[in-house]
Amino acid sequence: MNTFYKQLLMGFMALVLIGCATGKNAFDKGDYETALDRAVNRLQSNPSNKKAQDVLIDGYRVASQYHLKRIQQMNRSSDSFRYESIYNEYAALNRYYRDIQRCPACLDLVNPKEYLQEQEAAAQNAAEVQVSLGEDALSTNTIEGGRQAFGHFQSALRYTNNLPAIDSLLTEARNMGTVRVLVEPIPVHSRSLELTNEYFANRMFEFLDGFSRDRFVQFYSQGDMEAYDISPDHILSMEFDDFVLGQTRIESKTKEIKRDSVVVGQFKDKDGVSHDVFGTVKADFTTYRKTLASTGMLNFEIRDAYSNQVLVQRKLGGEDIWQYEWASFNGDERALTKDEIRMSKQKEVPPPSPQELFAAFIDRVYDQAFTQVRTLYRDTRL
């Protein structure tokens, strides 16, 4: 490429960059917000930039006319949500006003107008529409109506906090939209073991309490239901089938271990100098493994409290195997590694208590129970 074309290309690229920096390209495409933003930024750093001045003057005039015309059109509309659109138009105009106010060079070129009162009025009207829709939803006195009402009241608060009794309306809507779940006592059946489900029950309620935060679902014990004088919508039942402990098994395995080049003695040469005697040492090393398996099943069910229709029913099973290892040896200890010596110093221990084994088994199944709860109530976020 010769010098002439290189200069021509560089000049064209410079024009493109200048157009982008001053907002001219954005203005030509009807993107007034971007055009004004770029023009203001350019004039803050270079107040005498002629292209940026022209974009600001023409851009603010055209953009103001555009937004004001849209406001007039929406004021004539019967759309219930027109005030939200009007609010957004005034918000754009006030954004232009604030940007230009921060640019002294811009104020010499245009006289921006503030529409703060108009924007606040539109916000109040938009919020009142949402409150009215929320009250209509509340009048249905249904769970779905409560959730819709809660959404409308939250939308209203996005526009203004100046809403009488909005907190009580939000509380009423959340209460109406919340599914109340009675968690029945959790029995444990075992033919030969005395077990308590306190560990499992505590973990379940800890999870359920955390899960229900910021959700349209709440879990209660029977005592809570009676204390608050409320009735359940769903009933969660969990029941452990027979928890069984297997027979304790002990397995052993013996191997011969040899280690070469071990000092086994000393001798003196004819000059009386002592020397090490190297040889091979041996030991019979026996490892022991004691195991005890525990198995059980959790019947998990959630049903509708009014129709008794079963919503979820699962049998959640699990097995936990406790094991312990130790060792012994017969022979020369020097044949063993440090880990083998450590194992040989460990002694046989009895298995944990049935209650401890039951708790370990519970750890296998409670995640499965939580998954069922998450799945059924996944669409209950506020």
List keywords for this structure.
382 residues; Double Stranded RNA Binding Domain; 7-stranded mixed β-sheet; flat; disordered N terminus
What report would you give on this structure?
Strands 1, 2, 3, 4, 5, 6 and 7 form a seven-stranded mixed beta sheet that branches. Helices cover 50% and strands 24% of the residues. The chain is of the alpha/beta class. The chain folds into three domains: 10-114, no CATH class; 124-177; 179-382, Double Stranded RNA Binding Domain, CATH 3.30.160. The longest helix has 26 residues, at 50-75. It is flat. Helix 4 packs antiparallel against helix 5 and helix 5 (82-101) runs antiparallel to helix 7 (116-138). The protein starts with a helix and ends in a 6-residue tail after the last helix. The chain has 13 helices and seven strands.
Mean pLDDT: 88
Measured between the Cα atoms of the first and last residue, the distance is: 64 Å
CATH topology of the largest domain: Double Stranded RNA Binding Domain
Largest sheet: 7 strands, mixed
Report the principal-axis shape: flat
Structural domain tally: 3
Radius of gyration: 40 Å
Number of helices: 13
Architecture per CATH nomenclature, i.e. the level-2 architecture of the largest domain: 2-Layer Sandwich
> What is the strand tally?
7
Please identify the structural class as seen in this structure: alpha/beta
| Low-pLDDT segments, ≥5 res | 2-20
Oligomeric state as shown: single chain
- CATH C-level of the largest domain: Alpha Beta
What is the helix content? 40-55%
Listing every helix as H and every strand as E from the N terminus to the C terminus, the arrangement reads HHHHHHHHHEHEHEEEEEHH
* Share of residues in strands: 15-25%
Signal peptide: 1-26
Keywords: Signal
